[in-house]
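Listing 4. Sequential folding, example run.
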Amino acid sequence: MRFVPLLLTCTVSCELAAQANSPVGPATGVPAGAHAVEQRTRGSREGIRLVASFDGLGARFTGPHGRVALRNPSDNALAVGRRHVVQTVNAQLAIFSRTGKPLYGPLPTNTVFRGFGGPCEEILSGDAVVRYDQLADRWLLVLPTFRRAVPRRTPPGPRRAVLPRPAPTRDTGVRVAPPRPGPEPPGGTYAMCYAVSATDDPMGPWYRYEFTRPLFPDYPRPAVWPDGYYVPTSTGDDVIEKHVCVAERTRMLRGERARELCRLVPGVNFLNTADLDGRQRPPRGAPNLVLAAGGSQLAGVTDASELQLWRFHVDWADTARTTLVGPERVAVAPYRYLCGGQLTSCVPQPGVARRLDAQGDKLMARVVYRQFGARGSIVAAHSVNTANGAGGVRWYELHAAVDHPVTLAQQGTFAPDSSYRWMPSPAIDRFGNVGIGYSFGSASQFPGQRFAARTPRDPPGTLGLREVALVNGEAAQTTTLRWQDYTQTAVDPLDDCTIWYVGDYFKAGDSAYSTRIGAFRLPGCR
């Protein structure tokens, strides 16, 4: 039999609450002025080439260590190196060749902490996220723990270890549920677990780190920056505040003792730190830029016309001088959260009553940053209502320079028809091409994954290249409204312009999701 547990990574009984209380129906209404930035026609120019496409972790996946134990939502994350592709789905990890051959896994994501002890080894939670640090040619794996544990008397130092190589076993298809954990200890703490590879080989040695956290560390969004690994988290589903932390990257790359510094930001919807793509660094000492969408679903505010921005400057020589300054307000075209925000029954599917969540209240996917000479470009995206009663991809490109205001360079909402496009993940390549992967579906088309893009020659605010399908869905998801929660793009370090993307879909006859990994090349990329 197939055992597919559904682990929901939030601090309240979100699935039951969502199914009982969420509005059911299409996206309704947009604020005045939102339609002015809608792109209502498809891009007409060819130029997007799908150069790799293969199934990742999912319902029928079998790797060197058997079949995957799926959880829902998938929490898809992807990183691409010079020789490998690493994927995590919630609490499972696999390593592929760049052509899609499974090389390692599937195994629990905390396998990398085997022998480390403490909560990082003992607690298997969801929301694992993987990144590739192009500046150092290293891998970064971040795991939160969603249960409190007794803090260690002596904080553990970094311990170098190679990924264990369990012997491949014949898979029977039987899944045994893990033992139920005991009560959480009073006065216990959560943890954020970091693993940094010692080389560019993810199957080689890793340095492991454990940092305690007083607050629930949901939805970590790790970002690479020269002076640190920045990781914001959500402190709870019913709290309008967020945590943003930075870990001492330079020391972690050397396997030395390191520190993590955190700041609490009250009254904010969801924070996302700028994640550096490419090898050109921002100006020395430039702070990491932290973005949030406006509004607050918990406060009943689902319309906004701004992005909020903070500047996080860390000083490792004198940590008392570390600052998080903001918010600055960046005015943008008005928008309304798709279907009113997260945990709402939103996207229709053919032949079933079940609608899917769109996580429309936040900049969920990574916020990407790229340096072009003296100018930094930031690209962010989220899901919004459209004038024709569906879901669209709202995206922004911002320009940044040290000691200057961040300015809006362009914006658009990709909404060429009445289908739903949601949960977008953007990237910007070394030529300034912007590519965005996203989920696609409607009452007549099963949910799948698509990709659209633009070149700098396109009119501002438009995705001028013809939309392409990474994978078309073949069936509806009926077991839960939670769909993915997020997906991820990754820019290829070999050419710094191929954009990789991963997302969910269902195969005909399956009751659990599959994932498809693809790579796209845009004009100028060879």
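-- end of first protein; second protein begins --
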Amino acid sequence: MKPILPILAIIGLLQSCTAPVTFSSQVIGNPANCPRQTEPIPIASAKDEGLYQQFDYHIRDIITDADTITFQTQQYDIVFCRFDRTWTVEPGTLADESQTADNPEQFQENLQNPPYQTIELNGKSYQYRVILEPQPFGNDEPKTVVFELITPNSTQPQRHPLYTLEQVQQAEVGIALGVPRITSALNYADRLFWSVASEQGEGFSGIATIVGYNPDMNEVAVIQPQEIQGQQITDLVIAGDRSNPVFWLGTHISGEGNPYLPGTGLVAYRPSPPNLESGTITSYTVRNSPIIGAIPDKLHLEGDLLWVGTGNGVCQVRWQGADNPGNWSCWRFAAMAKLPSQELPLYRGLLEETPAVTLEADRVGDTVEVLWWSPVDYQTQKGRYEVRYEDGFTVTLEEGASSWSEIYGSSWQPLPGQPPLHWAGHEWHWNGDRFVRGFDQVALNFFGGGPVGIVSDQDQWTGEKPANLNALRGDLKVSELTKTTTKLNYYSGWVEEELLDPYFTVVPQNRPFNPRPNPLDEMAGF
């Protein structure tokens, strides 16, 4: 059989769609200064990058010039050409993150006594850092997170407590202070601002904080929106004018063995004048907006346009009208592979021994989308790729749905846009046609058997081999959901890794015509 379609068809298979928004017809940039893709760049193998790092597309930095915007991941430089709004993928130019841990003594010293960083404002230099007191790894438990600022013509730092261990415990976001860090520093309207995040996991945490400094008054403002207090701020930009600013934040959470867990998504914090310390927030998540990824890593502001880089793609949004889906234009990251000339056996489960169907290209150059990779044996690290399969399979799970309070207690407060029920596909989100899952919605779970997916027999996992996954990122449709049973279709299958050579690319993310309501809102009588 020949169920695989060419790439242009694959892009449109998720839903009936509109074209992405083009915000300006004005000619911008010089096309001669834009790179052009010659050969696709293969994604790294698990043996080269570790079990799941080959799908770590989180944005570490954004670099701009008059012609291009470059979104840097650890593996790739993803370049947007302003002139014709096209994308190219180049080898990554970021330093290897593992090099920071090559010197354990220096690494520990930087945690205990981090060096000052510098920011310029009106031709003057300000030095800053954030520390724990007492220092970590000593005899006394850290009790306070302190922001230090050395102003021009001063040699001694101003010291401003941001929050205490007692406050973290009272907020019930942790039992110990995590090591804090500055995630962004910027000047805005003749003031300086910093975002502060804290290490999380194994009981360590902090309170999401923005620090503002007014040099004219020599005053510091500490902003800690309660709605995101137990999360990490990944980045900060400020739009609007001094009388009506909007603080745009990326957020996420991390836990033991899980460095990236979705938080409140993209957050707009609007201070209530005349003070910055109080205000309102609006959150934009994959469940209530067109944003392409669950975790906004880096932000970049250009006038009325906000660029949002996530672990699953990039969005450009007119921030003043962000509540209108028509003001978003997004592109998603994808791994593709040319179908081999010979037939390609496809298995309905990761560990299945007999192929369910055989895939075959209709024409030379036909492609298949690669969704994930998983080992079939921990010792040899031999694995299979999960690929998109539009004919799909059906499965019945002997597990149903529960309310969140049944699992976490009546005091549990769900995050904005969280699904109304806890069920097998709760890490997927409804896109108006199917339940879909981005790269950055996969909780990596480096301990305990790897990422969680759809598995028909939860009891068969022994720890020696992975669970027999039906789907890890494949789209889902639910036909029945009760307290004890889930029946669904999943639109993916598994192929032997040596039969495909995936490469990384960027494709438009389209919006559905007349999206249907989330069936979870009506199912199972919850």
